[in-house]
Write a structure and sequence with these properties.
alpha/beta, 8-stranded parallel beta barrel, binds 3-methyl-2-oxobutanoic acid, TIM Barrel, about 280 residues
């Protein structure tokens, strides 16, 4: 499998055309590659699901970079998108500097940024950095949006959201993430946009879907939005495994002989002789 190029990504139109998943480390990226995921995202959701922050706001460029490098090592052949953390995209200059690090040092193929920051996107694209847009619920500014809630339910708000997505397309993004928007609006956006839409909480009509890995495997339990589907109750399974380990250590059952190393009897004899 080779990394999807930008023209290939742009051609992925029609529901079910793109499978995207977050990956923040080497083993996850490797497993997702083996499972045939099309695009991996080092999202700033890593701040909440891996680093334990209350929101994505405190996530730093260094943190995204660190995890991008790890994901890249696990998935050398998959298109890798890295998020521009909060305020690293506040101006074209800052965004270019952040993207330079994520692409050159981290090995990212594209960067994603939240909101219709058209001037910033245009600067990145004209500098040759592939960009994925993100509209609807944008977690970095969730507080100003009234919290983690569905965006674009009203006609005016929906029209504004659509306008933002179209402006992003005009500025050169290769695709647009639609987060927590009504399915009908996502469908309309997917018809209007020539580039693929990638939904999360946006219904089934978007061209692609994205999920946060820790939601998919059921290890993030602080909250579970309606759009999340757990394909595994991983949290429970992992906790059971750790409890079994602790119980065996306490009972003297682990490590067993098969988990230990032996010395030759002769060497041991020699060692005893020196006592
Ligand atoms: O950070 C992230 O995981 C994201 C996805 C929710 C699209 O931006």
């Amino acid at each position: 499998m080779a990394r999807l190029t930008i023209p290939e990504l742009k051609s992925r139109k029609g529901p079910g055309s793109l499978v995207m998943l977050t990956a923040y480390d080497y083993p996850t990226a490797k497993l997702a590659t083996a499972a045939g995921v099309d695009v991996l995202l080092v999202g700033d959701s890593l701040g909440m699901v891996v680093l334990g922050y209350d929101s994505t706001v405190p996530v730093t460029l260094e943190e995204v970079l660190h995890h991008t490098k790890a994901a890249r090592r696990g998935a050398p052949d998959v298109h890798l998108v890295a998020d521009l953390p909060y305020l690293s995209d506040a101006t074209p200059e800052r965004a270019l500097a952040a993207a330079e690090r994520l692409v050159k040092e981290g090995g990212a193929d594209s960067v994603k940024l939240e909101g219709p920051k058209i001037e910033v996107v245009a600067a990145l694209v004209s500098a040759g950095v592939p960009v994925l847009g993100h509209v609807g619920l944008t977690p970095q500014t969730a507080a100003s949006l009234g919290g983690y809630k569905v965006q674009g339910r009203g006609r005016e708000e929906a029209a504004k959201l659509l306008e933002g997505a179209l402006a992003l397309e005009e500025a050169g993004v290769w695709g647009v993430v639609l987060e927590m928007v009504p399915a009908q609006l996502a469908e309309l956006a997917s018809r209007r946009l020539r580039v693929p839409t990638i939904g999360i909480g946006a219904g089934a009509a978007t061209d692609g879907q994205v999920l946060v890995f820790h939601d998919l495997i059921g290890v993030f339990d602080r909250f579970k939005p309606r759009f999340v589907k757990r394909y595994l109750e991983g949290g429970q399974l992992i906790q059971e495994a750790i409890s079994a380990y602790a119980a065996e250590v306490r009972a003297g059952e682990f490590p067993a002989a098969e988990n230990a190393y032996e010395m030759d009897a002769e060497e041991l004899e020699g060692l005893y002789g020196k006592e």
